[in-house]
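Case study 2.
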Amino acid sequence: MQQNLTPTDPISTPLEGIVIAVQANFCQVQIDRDTPIVGGKLILCTRRARLQKIGVSAIVGDRVVVEEADWIGSRGVVSEVFPRHSLLDRPPVANADRILLVFALAEPALDPFLLSKFLVKAESTGLQVSLCLNKSDLVTEIEKQEWCDRLGDWGYQPIVISVETGMGVQELQIELDRQITIFAGHSGVGKSSLTNALIPDSNIRVATVSGKLSRGRHTTRHVQLFTMPTGGLIADTPGFNQPDIACTPKELPTYFPEIRQRLATGNCQFSDCTHRDEPNCLVRGEWERYTHYLDFLADSIAWEQQLQSQPKLENSLKQKSGTGKKKFEPKLDSKYRQISRHTILQSLDEISAELDEE
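Prediction:
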């Protein structure tokens, strides 16, 4: 049983936790639950000036070290941000294990092209991808089965639920246990309502679907992690209408289960086949999402061309030596780094050689 912390219970050692919310220059950190006395407590933190100087930010889902904890005021300072094993850039969430795409079977109607785009974006993260179909109470059993069969051909087995009636919600809660799950999907499909059903005390604001456009209003304003009673964490993310295709033409086919299945049985004639108009292509053919693939291929070609025209960004982490194990620490921006003696001597040698030639 956890004890209430008092001013006579100071903790001088650094603590570890997870960032559950970020707003302006502050982040809310939940201390690890297995920490004695203060496990599970929330503390509002700023970042060390050193981290700000080198551009290291803390986002939702980041594992961090908290120092200088003031438990009376519930304040502290983030002194270190651990390397991430996964990162979703839009919305920004770190260290997630799964993406749960939430779509509605009705109100708004399920758009196959938009769903396909969300699936490709989700697959590109490298996370486990699950698909949840909400508002099953608004369609017939035949319509539900038709969509399940159709999505099965795409390579997905959707979880069919109804937040309104509670059907399938408890089973979904068990499925998401002990993981960080990102909820994503079109606005108005019931992501916030589902989070409230899974975590009754989360009290996330929800809104109805616009009658004129048959689209949902954005009710989630920022990313936040919510703790499920069973221990899992849910990231309820701001709704967005059009996820971008940010991958290369070579990567894109790997995000389609249908293409992966075809290429598992053989190879195209050309190793760099784009599966568009090359001869002896195993992928090109009569499958439903092939037209989606061609549209996304054009987007990925444009994205790659834009990426190649931009200068490469410098890695912000370096391996720390002398620790006995692999550990990374933030790297100073190049404009703040001291020029090494070797570089200075090398430059002097080059100048001397040029003078000798003259």
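The chain has a mean pLDDT of 81.
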